[in-house]
TrEMBL record:
It is a multi-pass membrane protein. Pfam families: Sugar_tr. One of its GO terms (cellular component) is membrane. Residues 22-31, 612-626, 642-651 have a biased composition (Basic and acidic residues). One of its GO terms (molecular function) is transmembrane transporter activity. It comes from Petrolisthes cinctipes (Flat porcelain crab). This is Major facilitator superfamily (MFS) profile domain-containing protein. PANTHER family: SOLUTE CARRIER FAMILY 22 MEMBER. The chain crosses the membrane at residues 229-252, 258-274, 286-308, 314-333, 410-427, 439-462, 469-490, 496-519, 526-546, 558-580. Residues 1-43, 611-662 are annotated as: Disordered. Coiled coil: none annotated. Keywords: Membrane, Transmembrane, Transmembrane helix. Gene3D superfamilies: MFS general substrate transporter like domains (1.20.1250.20).
Amino acid sequence: MMVRDEIIDQVEEEEEEEEVDKGEPNGKEQPPRGNAEQSPTIDGRETVVGEWTEAMVGKEKDLLQAVIGQRGRWNFLLFFICSYGSLISAMQTMSYQVLGATPDYWCHVDQLLEANWTTQQILHFAIPFNNKTKKHEGCQMYDYNYTTAVAMGYDEAMVTLTPNRPPLVPCQHRDYDLSVYKSTITTEWDLVCERRAMYSTTQAATHIGKLAGSFLLGYIMDMYGRRRIVLVCSFLHILTAFGMCFSINIWFFIILKVFVTSTAAGVYLGLFITQMETCISKDRSLFATMYALPWTVGYMLIPGIAYWVRSWKWLQAALSLPCLVLIAHYWLLPESPRWLVLQGRYDEALKLLKQAANMNGNVPPSDGTILTAMHTIYKKEPSTKTHTGLVKILCDYVAILRLKKLRIRALIIFGCWFTCALVYYGVSLNATNLSTDVYLYMFLGGLLEVPSYVLLWPAIAFFGRVKSLAGLIFTCGVSILIVACIIFFLPEAPVWIATLLSLLGKMAITAASHLVVLFTAELFPTYYRSIAIGEASLCGGIGSISSPYINDILGEKVAWAPSLLFGVASLLAGVVSFLLPETRGQNMPETSDFDQDKGGGRDNKAFAIESPEIKRQQQQHTDKNIDANGTKMVRDAVNMESGKKMEHKQENGTTEMEDTKL
């Protein structure tokens, strides 16, 4: 969810490469190469404009490759520095099940405890037994006169009083089985029964923090740089992560949890962007996939640490210790050279790139040549994103739903994002409802994410995006539905069967969650791409926030219900995803292909978006109607001829989409 801007950049660069292959970079004819022209001066130094810069001008990915060469020691060292943020993020995001584990619990009966009745005697006499769950109730007890029962003794009370059971009353206090866990946030603040929603809110706070951190800090990084924000977020993350150990109540814990995960999102996002901006374009898919692997390592470390540390405060402290390594980023983490160039800080970018070149054993071009290319990049792209008014931003987000083809396409992909996030976190944190070992389930869940990443890329290359996405989501749905059937119809079946099927579903939905991000970037034209992924991320956030409430509140009442809901949602998403168009081997869609359709024939002027393509066409139309002088007439003729060539090219080069494929 947090990597959408980098995916947008990568897809747009692939568009440019396709145009270059056709001989028309960026859709314009390039001037012929020649000898060096008049040399501009930057920071008092004369630069050189020659054949190399004419080929590479304005393309930072080529500049990076020309200076530092192919991937080398510097790239892999930076990867290890940056990918640590993925490990930290996993350890603070997925620790919910062990920090808040819920052991067996029952009503606290003072009189019986003071009379030295054993736990089993109290359960048999005072606590009702639920035949469906095969457990004693934890929220109610019989309303006996317990003073009379104590006077009788256990044996006589069972014979005399139990035949006529009194009404049930809510528990005032509870006792917990502490044979497995010494303490959890559940036992600390009694987060069961009528307070169960507070338990789910602690996990929802995790996703709220991630969502807020991704949206807010992404814009701040554009203004103040990646390195600075990573360092600030690292410092705040360490403080709040250790601060959670000293939480005085559940609300304090929840507030700190939001700060912990939002700062973790800032660290993750900043390091990921730095990683993507310091590798050449053809290596981005490789490093993006590798960046996810430390997440699985952090995921698998949680049950290993929790197995030995059974008190939640000490466990939180142990999970926070790896965060201290983030301090090393002050000395090890460089600023993104791309961001430095866009800020006009050429000397710093030049120094960094030359250091990288030396470590990779590459001989870079001259300083003047590099500085010239940097200057051209700076002129072509502003240092920060252009922010228009709030009304314009809102209109942009509404516009994607006003265009008929985009609306249907967007609604389907939004549903896929919601389902993937809902099911991923729902299945990952569903060990309690499966009655399986939490530690083993978490470890295997993290381990199986590795083949999910590794097998995804050959799958989409062979089957394509649509079949792969639908197949993965459908596989998850079938697996989880079988789990629901086992829990409902075969409650005595071996636990490992349901566990294995649940993990198979998790493996499939993990791969689908990664694929849906790439697919979204390929489905929408350039102007709407950022808007689409932003809205889709929001839908995914809603799904992840919803999952703990389904698992904890619904699952506690009906153990098979969460699996049924996750399975049905996956099947529906898998079916509707077949309606999406295949993008494998297809040119990226153009904005003008969709701007002609305003949906249903209604007036959409209030929501119309004047994309760059529309403005260009309108300007050409205006120019053709101006006949002010002979020069203008000549230009009109040239424009008309160019338009015919462009139309001819589009007719021959653009693949028509089938009507049933939106």
